[in-house]
Input
Amino acid sequence: MTGEIQTIQDSRDQSSRYDLRGFPWWLIAIIGFLIFMFFLILTNPDYRRAFEFIRGEFGGIAGFRDSGMAGFIGTGISITIFTTIVAFAIALVIGLLAGLGRVSTNIIIRNIAITYIEFIRGVPTLVLIFTVALVIVPAVAGALGLSNQAISSNVRGITALAIIYGAFLAEVFRAGIESVPSGQMEAARSLGLNGGQAMRHVILPQAIRNVLPALGNDFIAMLKDSSLMSVLAVREITQMARLYSGSTFRFRETYLVLTFLYLAMTIALSLLLRWYEKRIR
Amino acid sequence: METNMTPHVLGDDIIVIEDLYKDFGSVVAVNGFSLTVRRGEVIVIVGPSGSGKSTVLRCINHLEMPTSGSVYIDGVRLEDKQTDINLVRAEVGMVFQQFNLFGHLTVLDNITLAQRLIRKRDKKEAERIAMEQLERVGIPEKAHAYPRQLSGGQQQRVAIARSLAMNPKIMLFDEPTSALDPEMIKEVLDVMLDLARGGMTMVVVTHEMGFARSAADRVVFMDQGNIIEMESPKVLFNDPKHERTKMFLSKIISH
Output
């Protein structure tokens, strides 16, 4: 958004200055940091050890020897990426349903959706992670007759993230649905489509296209918030970093490497998103 | 069927509007409007903005729910609980001022969507009918274009084709040329004239008096949510009875 404002101001300047002022210096700075860190990790054994620990194991065949999902998908980066993708996929489903509920004409459905959304939005993410993982999941497990211990912290963390982001995504979907002009619904209904058909075939395809950039931003936000699962001892990169710094006291190396890892992932994703936004315009 | 049929829905009366009343909170849009349209008739509704023309039109297929009163389409009372409004709407085509083509679909898919969902036609059949209708409105070469790639006039013709592909009994037009650049108005009116000559029952809200003159069987002049005067175009345009009609026409024609 700030980039857009910048461009508008720049266009008033002389064209010879435009290129320099519009140039993404910030990106150079960040990429410079990333390259510097990359170089450090390659050449400095202290950084390299921190990196190798935090990065973790990628699971695979060796992982099968351990029991449970953590063994299968490994630790560190693979957990961070895996939990984010799974939790986001579930959050998309929850968010779509809650977003549809939010715009429903049925008062009961609408109020259930609003209650869920406002409840989640009113509580800090960290607190929700504890509440979902340590209160709601055991309660549901108990109700289903499952053993609480059988549910891994990965599953608890994914559940918590999915429930939290479901509420955020519900608002994104609602905004998307409301961004489609009312004439689209009227035209669909006037052809004889019922409300559900019109929503599915006419409104939602356009709504989802409109909110893809916003969904991308929330995916990046979730990738960052997956670090909060470290409080559940999920062995994603933040937890790995805590374990490493706790035993070696190499805080500088540990947290610079951790920062490097998150920044590399989020910058890559956000550049991808910018490229996509430009393309659809 | 009951033998004691309501008298006003007999025979060839395809649309019967009875004492229609519609308010939006404190604003009364339609105030006791009644009109009977016979099969094959072309009715043009004119009047100043805010006179309730569009609201009447939108009540005919219940895009707006009337506050009170009745609308019968081919003998079916829309306000009855057991009436499936979606079945009725499939028989009543509607063309909007803003075209309202589905932006994510090609022209062809715009025209086949409802055919396939509602008329249960297979893809091939629906596409054949779509192409027929595109021929009729004169732009078959745009079948695979997206709406945003078309001019306003072309978009509106696609919208007409989309409605016609459902084989409607009635076509409603809500100011179909008001959003068009002047040079595109004729191409849309030509399609509508053609349709009128072909015997389609039409109710048209428009400011195009030329169209009213050449196509309308009756012209309805509305003001403040009611009919002020209803005559053949010849009588209404040349010899209006009411002061308000005269004033309105003089403003329109002086333009």
